[in-house]
Amino acid sequence: MSTHNVWTHKGTFLLAAVGSAVGLGNLWRFPYLTGENGGGAFILIYALTIFAVGIPILIAEIMLGRNSRRSPIMGMRFLTRTHKTSRGWETIGWLGAASAFIILSFYSVIAGWALHYTGLMLTGSLDGADAETVAASFDALLASPPLLTLYHSLFIGASALIVGLGIHRGIENGLRVLMPALFVILMVVLVYSAAIGDLAAAATFLFTFNVADLSLEGWLQAMGQSFFTLSLGMGAIMAYGAYMSSDASLTRTAFAIAVVDTAVAMIAGLAIFALVFGAGLDPGEGPGLMFVTLPLAFAEMPAGALLGGIFFILVLGAAISSSISLIEPVAAFLVERFDLERPQAVSAMVIASWALGLLTVFSFNLMAEETLFHTLFGRSAFGLLELLTNIFMPLGGMLIALFAGWALTHGEVMKEMRTNETWFRVWRFLVRFIAPAAVAFVFLRTIPQVEGYLLPAIGAVVIVGAFAAGRTFLAERQGS
Fold first, then answer.
1. pLDDT, tens digit, for every residue of 12-24?
2. Fewer CB within 10 Å, N- or C-terminus of the chain?
3. pLDDT given for residue 228 in this prediction
4. pLDDT attached to residue 461
């Protein structure tokens, strides 16, 4: 059964996809990875990969969603039947749904930290605090299971409420208010940073390109970030693409998503590093950049409490716009497959993801020491969940590229893309060869980190995916 919903306005898909892409990855992960890897060189590799790998796969994923008009799982089931390919390609839908489900579980916990810091900033609790006080405040938050669980519950509950209202009343109306507000707040923070901080130092740091200073690990992180920031391989873009108008341009929309997403990351980086350099702090702080370094910078600046509160409201809004896209792929599947009402489907998905998120909550306190997870997998429960998504997402993206590049016919692609033959050939070359090779390179670098009993399971998934790709390729060759 297909829901066949379509966004009310053509521009809504762009808002939805940008909302999915713009999240903690732009405001938290991108700045600290840039700081750890020396600035401009990291950004250069990131931007090149966005346009050579990210955009072609983004077009492919939207195309599969719009072509099937179904949730990722049911959509891939439909496409394998209509194209007479191996059912192994259904793995794409299941990998996307699993990634969205797992990511939501820990994403909600981390987004809850922003809820905590919004309160601290607006109440002035960190005014004039020194580095030791700010660090101790963050440690105290992580050490409190009840507090983390409360924030986790509030955040995931708010996200579920929006999605539960439906495509038009919930997601569409929410994004129309949320996304413009986020861009306004981001510009306010940038203006404040320019006035109070050191914008020149931030610009020099971000836009001085010295590729020789970037390690292989830095290259891989830049490539991985460019892939993850567009929400590829987690089912969200495919699910949203199923509601996209048939006459909206795939290519223009994909480029617009990539440009806006990259611009938000750059503006956020300028604003954050201007504050960091203005306060004389270390830009290479790592994951603690947003929750330790930035609160310290706000604490030392005029009107810092107010602007700090506004900044963390921005973080919360961006996180919610991403989290609703994580709920949609699984919720849509439950509606289509089991004929559930949308509130029922959303509730089932969110409650299960909330329960899984408790493992992340406890990873920072009750399960921080050596546990069964450490013994079996050599990492914490949170580390295990993060590792799984770092495997599922690129693997799913690689299979999306291969399926769209090899299984979809010339006529289908031209009908969906509505473009000239030259761009079609460039796109097909990128999704058939360049994008899968680049994603596989990042993916295979992740495999040596896998320990314990995970490797056989991952190997089985890879074999299924490779078998499906081979079957489709042979079928096309025989049919031509």
1. 888 899 999 888 8
2. C
3. 80
4. 55
Determine, yes or no, domain membership for 278.
Answer: yes
Reduced 3-state DSSP string for 410-453:
HHHHHHHHCCCHHHHHHHHHHHHHHHHHHHHHHHHHHHHHCCCC
C-alpha distances out from residue 264 to 26, 184, 348, Å:
7, 11, 33
Give a yes or no: residue 45 inside a domain: yes
Alpha-carbon gap, residue 100 to 393, rounded angstroms: 9
* Cβ proximity of 38 and 210 under 8 Å: yes
CA 94 to chain centre: 17
Instruction: Please give the Cα distance from 477 to 480 (Å, whole number).
Output: 5
Regions in the chain scoring below 70 on pLDDT:
1-4, 370, 445-480
Structure tokens at 416: 């969906």
DSSP SS3 for 364:
coil
pLDDT digits (tens, 9 = 90+) for 418-462: 888 999 999 999 999 889 888 887 777 666 555 444 555 555 555
Any domain includes 321:
yes
**Tokens 């439950």 sit at which residue?**
334
Number of domains in the chain: 1
Query: Residue 103 is part of a domain; what is its CATH number?
Result: 1.10.4160.10
The pLDDT value recorded for residue 2 is 42
Structural domain span for residue 37: 10-360
- Asked if 438 and 465 count as a contact pair (C-beta separation under 8 A), the reply is no
Give me the phi and psi of 453, to 5 degrees please: -90, 5
The answer to whether position 443 is within a domain reads no
Q: Which two tokens stand for residue 340?
A: 């559930």
Q: Do the Cβ atoms of 385 and 360 come closer than 8 Å?
A: yes
